[in-house]
Design goal:
332 residues, D-Maltodextrin-Binding Protein, domain 2, 3 domains, three-stranded antiparallel sheet, 15 helices, 44% helix, globular
């Protein structure tokens, strides 16, 4: 009798354990979110819109991290990172030597997108090739992607920094001044590339669609953020890549989310979206691989050479000094 009673009790206990164990497994779990948000400095650019999708569709929340976007003017971006107003910053690989030269401890950790027609060189119709610009004035924003892109193109076509007079002018002004026929050649971006044809003798001579990978858009993070909140940084990255996958499958809804946050209509944003290729995890692993052509290490070093020659920076950083691929490799 005693043995039977013990057996019955054992069965009941096992049953209760099984029941509550299954119930616990089936119950939705909530990831604890760090109350301190990670602030990301962001500019109005199609490839950076993924951050807003990740926020609105709760990809960041699902990863257990709070991310706050801070829209900044281009001139305010590096100072905001330096002052810790933002801990992460969007940009392009060519800005890394500038960040390093300013003494800011930060590294590029992943790519958001690759310019595929978003940036380009506008000229008058009499310019048939890059080499025709020898001895002429070209306008571009010093220390920004247009500057780097033009000098890369010029060098590729046999022109040194002494062969062309490069004049500092921000990209928006380059575009508007070209359309108004105040200048005849300059580096700008959309929507000014499309508007260039409003000028009777104007055209886009070359764009990043013709030379893909040169302008690789990236996210850089302060070293102290990665040191103190490494897992949260990886959560940001996972949420970002999940948002890219979602956007690729839900283009119309995704475009509407980004357009709203950029104060544009969906119709205005849709063609802009086509000028970048979004960088998913696999693309990132390729771009952050030293054996891949035009990888982010080599691009950063090329930018350091160009900006040093043009007096934008005083010291040249190596690709290794401004790049951290370890976080991406941990997401494999």
């Amino acid at each position: 009798m005693k043995k039977i009673t013990i057996a019955i009790v054992a069965i009941v206990v096992v049953g209760l354990i099984a029941y509550f164990g299954i119930t616990k497994l089936n119950k939705p779990t909530q990831t604890t979110i760090n109350s301190e948000p990670i602030k990301v400095g962001i500019a109005v650019y199609p490839g950076f819109g993924t951050f807003y999708i990740a926020k609105e569709k709760e990809f960041f929340k699902n990863q257990g991290v709070d991310v706050e976007m801070v829209q900044l003017s281009l001139d305010a971006m590096v100072p905001a990172l330096e002052s810790n107003q933002v801990q992460m910053l969007v940009g392009s690989t060519d800005m890394m030597p500038i960040v390093a030269d300013a003494g800011i401890a930060a590294k590029q950790i992943f790519s958001t997108s690759i310019s595929y027609g978003a940036d380009g060189l506008v000229t008058t119709n009499d310019i048939q090739k890059i080499s025709d610009l020898k001895g002429k004035k070209v306008y571009a924003a010093y220390g920004f992607p247009g500057h780097f892109f033009f000098r890369y193109l010029a060098e590729k076509n046999g022109l040194s920094n002494k062969d062309v007079e490069l004049i500092n002018l921000n990209s928006e002004e380059v575009g508007s001044s070209f359309v108004a026929e105040k200048i005849d050649a300059g580096m700008t971006w959309e929507p000014w590339l499309s508007k260039a044809q409003e000028r009777k003798d104007g055209k886009v001579l070359v764009s990043s669609k013709d030379e893909p990978l040169i302008i690789t858009d990236i996210v850089l993070a302060r070293n102290d953020l990665v040191l103190n909140r490494r897992e949260d940084v990886k959560r940001v990255m996972r949420g970002f890549f999940a948002a890219i996958d979602w956007w690729e499958k839900n283009t119309t809804e995704g475009n509407a989310i980004v357009a709203k946050n950029f104060n544009l209509t969906a119709d205005e944003f849709a063609p802009m979206r086509e000028t970048v290729n979004l960088s998913n995890l696999q693309t990132n692993l390729e771009r952050f691989n030293k054996s891949t052509p035009l990888n982010v290490y080599s691009l950063a070093e090329k930018a350091a050479d160009i900006y040093s020659q043009d007096g934008v920076i005083k010291t040249k950083a190596t690709g290794d000094a401004v790049t951290d691929s370890s976080l991406l490799n941990e997401l494999r």
